[in-house]
């Protein structure tokens, strides 16, 4: 069974005076281990789609099944627990706690998961080593470069061993050389079998994925494999 099964999902934002039909019947399946790039013009529904994938928002109509859970039927408390256990998030703006050092930032999701202080610290150290920041545990976000901050955010996203990594414009605030480093980390995670869904405006970034879906006006208008550049010659 695919990790993600969305069937005829609609999202309507009711603003009182107006209704915005942000998603208009999205059906999509994503299997374990896929690396999906999400593209489309501004306002086409990408963020709404990611919010539903991330269990941050419910569809107005249709069903969403994640790892066998019918998300739309889970009560709020169980939904929060499933989200913390199953999904890691990475954002354009890094979303780190500015007053906490790298180690404490990475420990955060494990506090919610109820791990002991010792376990948290051990796993946070390991996660930071994995993204090449083993020597920056004590640094606060302001003392790290943008690329290093994003690596802390990736370590934080992975520390509960999620089944799904959601990345919303993760390279949007980074220069192109640093973007390549971040994409190399995501590609390594993909090779290890992690399922990744990534929103990006940049074709060069989308080219690292294995599949591309394109939104327009709340519809999914394209869904195709990304050609492997090694096959291009
Ligand atoms: P392809 O490379 O297959 O032709 P496109 O470049 O047309 O794909 O991009 C796919 C989708 O992404 C389109 O809906 C396009 O409007 C949108 N898109 C491309 N570049 C940008 C951008 N810089 N900002 C916002 N949307 C973009
Ligand atoms: P994208 O991420 O592709 O830019 P969005 O999913 O953010 O697209 O937006 C899709 C449509 O839904 C847009 O018309 C946007 O204005 C609207 N929208 C998004 N979020 C909200 C919200 N919280 N309340 C009302 N309308 C929203």
TrEMBL record:
One of its GO terms (molecular function) is ATP binding. It comes from the Bacteria. InterPro entries: AAA+_ATPase, ABC_transporter-like_ATP-bd, ABC_transporter-like_CS, ABC_transpr_LolD-like, MacB-like_ATP-bd, P-loop_NTPase. The keyword ATP-binding applies. It holds the Pfam family ABC_tran. PROSITE patterns: ABC_TRANSPORTER_1, ABC_TRANSPORTER_2. This is ABC transporter ATP-binding protein. It comes from Ktedonosporobacter rubrisoli.
């Amino acid at each position: 069974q695919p990790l993600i099964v969305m069937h005829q999902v609609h999202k309507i934002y009711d603003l009182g005076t107006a209704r915005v039909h942000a998603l208009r019947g999205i059906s999509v399946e994503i299997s374990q281990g896929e690396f999906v790039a999400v593209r489309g013009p501004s306002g086409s529904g990408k963020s709404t789609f990611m919010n539903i994938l991330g269990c941050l928002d419910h569809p107005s109509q249709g069903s969403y099944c994640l790892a066998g859970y019918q998300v739309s039927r889970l009560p709020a408390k169980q939904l929060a627990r499933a989200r913390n256990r199953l999904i890691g998030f990475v954002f354009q703006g890094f979303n780190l706690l500015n007053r906490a050092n790298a180690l404490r930032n990475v420990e955060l999701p494990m506090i919610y998961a109820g791990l002991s202080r010792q376990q948290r610290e051990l796993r946070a150290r390991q996660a930071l080593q994995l993204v090449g920041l083993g020597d920056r545990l004590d640094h606060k976000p302001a003392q790290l470069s943008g690329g290093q901050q994003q690596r802390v955010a990736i370590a934080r996203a992975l520390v509960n061993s999620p089944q799904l990594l959601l990345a919303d414009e993760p390279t949007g605030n980074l220069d192109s050389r640093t973007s390549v480093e971040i994409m190399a980390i995501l590609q390594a995670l993909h090779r290890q079998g992690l399922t990744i869904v990534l929103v990006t405006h940049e074709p060069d970034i989308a080219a690292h994925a294995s599949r591309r879906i394109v939104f327009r006006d709340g519809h999914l208008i394209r869904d195709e494999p990304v050609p492997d550049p090694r096959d291009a010659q």
